[in-house]
Amino acid sequence: MLKVEGISTKIGKIDILHNIDMHVNSGEIISVIGANGAGKSTLLNTLSGLISPTSGKVFLDDVLISGLPAYKVIKKGLSLVPEGRQIFSNLTVKENLLLGMYSTYYREKHQIEEKLEKIFSMLPGLKKHINNLGGNLSGGEQQMLAIGRGLMSDPKIILLDEPSMGLAPKIVSEILEILTVIKQELGTMVILVEQNVKAALKIANRVYVIDQGRMILNGSAEEISQNPHVIRAYLGIK
Ligand code: ATP
């Protein structure tokens, strides 16, 4: 379980996140939705140790992970798939994936091969590109690669920052369906940050709504999709 207690974060001198409480139960996919600039990326960057919170605590399976640098947070079992994918264009698909393992203890060749096979079995179409350069993949393939790389450290929880960005609707559905497969096959908890609210509501168990750095609503995906504020602000239906 991930427990976030009263997290506040500043960027420079500006308060961005205000007293954020949230939790993710084991086996859950959580979507975080909110407008541009609401603080979604800052939240993920804070949880993953890229930014230190000014107050509050984050626990993963009762282990305190807030205040640790990002490379230690990964070792504790939290992996971030960053906004914009951040694939290494000049490295092959396999090399990109192996970079995701640096924090683990897999060293034997057969363990590495097994791990890669498992990842490829969940990410359709990636294996045939194993020796191709990351920069030569399509946007959707790069997103799958970024997810694969995030899974290589065997995380307890994976955080995804706008995986649908710039992708065609059909590819978006494919990518989001993979999250359900990951949850079922690996038992990984998921936090999904998405501007594509309709798609995010479809796959989430529960949803948090962030507005100007504050969590203003949370509930089951069904409750949130019927909430008048959410309908007005994010679903574009009267
Ligand atoms: P988007 O969907 O546009 O990525 P978001 O919800 O992820 O938005 P954040 O990127 O977390 O929002 O930004 C939250 C607020 O923090 C915004 O007002 C943004 O302008 C500000 N902010 C983020 N990064 C910086 C920075 N490096 N310097 C100054 N302000 C920043």
UniProtKB/TrEMBL annotation:
<dbReference type="GO" id="GO:0015807">
    <property type="term" value="P:L-amino acid transport"/>
</dbReference>
<protein>
    <submittedName>
        <fullName>ABC transporter ATP-binding protein</fullName>
    </submittedName>
</protein>
<dbReference type="InterPro" id="IPR052156">
    <property type="entry name" value="BCAA_Transport_ATP-bd_LivF"/>
</dbReference>
<dbReference type="Pfam" id="PF12399">
    <property type="entry name" value="BCA_ABC_TP_C"/>
</dbReference>
<dbReference type="InterPro" id="IPR027417">
    <property type="entry name" value="P-loop_NTPase"/>
</dbReference>
<dbReference type="Pfam" id="PF00005">
    <property type="entry name" value="ABC_tran"/>
</dbReference>
<dbReference type="GO" id="GO:0005524">
    <property type="term" value="F:ATP binding"/>
</dbReference>
<dbReference type="InterPro" id="IPR032823">
    <property type="entry name" value="BCA_ABC_TP_C"/>
</dbReference>
<keyword id="KW-0067">ATP-binding</keyword>
<dbReference type="InterPro" id="IPR017871">
    <property type="entry name" value="ABC_transporter-like_CS"/>
</dbReference>
<dbReference type="GO" id="GO:0016887">
    <property type="term" value="F:ATP hydrolysis activity"/>
</dbReference>
<keyword id="KW-0029">Amino-acid transport</keyword>
<comment type="similarity">
    <text>Belongs to the ABC transporter superfamily.</text>
</comment>
<dbReference type="GO" id="GO:0015658">
    <property type="term" value="F:branched-chain amino acid transmembrane transporter activity"/>
</dbReference>
<keyword id="KW-0547">Nucleotide-binding</keyword>
<dbReference type="InterPro" id="IPR003593">
    <property type="entry name" value="AAA+_ATPase"/>
</dbReference>
<dbReference type="InterPro" id="IPR003439">
    <property type="entry name" value="ABC_transporter-like_ATP-bd"/>
</dbReference>
<keyword id="KW-0813">Transport</keyword>
